[in-house]
Amino acid sequence: MTPAPPPKAIARHRDGRIHAYVVDSGACGTLEPAAVFQPRAGDEVVESVVRHDR
């Protein structure tokens, strides 16, 4: 039996923060972030990534 793939994790920049979302294959509708990160003062956010285990 083949194990199911882990849920997909994505990151988005919103309101000066980095929002991490975990998306199951059957997800639909509005997503709620699994975690929200605040960059340090003075940091410029140009790219972000989140691991599937956050």
Model description:
The protein has a three-stranded antiparallel beta sheet, with no helix packed on it. The mean pLDDT is 81. It is 0% helix and 31% strand. The protein is mainly beta and 54 residues long.
Alpha plus pi helix count: 0
Estimate the helix proportion, in percent.
Answer: under 10%
Sequence of secondary-structure elements: EEE
Overall form = elongated
Strand order of the largest sheet: 1-2-3
Please report which band the strand proportion falls in: under 5%, 5-15%, 15-25%, 25-35%, 35-45% or over 45%.
Answer: 25-35%
What's the number of extended β-strand segments?
3
Question: Separation of termini?
Answer: 26 Å
Largest β-sheet summary: 3 strands, antiparallel
| Gyration radius from CA atoms, angstroms | 13 Å
* Chain-averaged pLDDT: 81
- Which segments are poorly predicted (pLDDT under 50) over 5 or more consecutive residues? none
Structural class: mainly beta
Quickly describe the structure.
This protein has 54 residues and is mainly β. The chain is 0% helix and 31% strand. The protein has strands spanning 8-14, 17-23, 35-37.
Keywords:
mainly beta; 3-stranded antiparallel sheet; 31% strand
Describe the secondary-structure layout.
Elements: E1 8-14, E2 17-23, E3 35-37
Antiparallel strand pairs: 1-2, 2-3
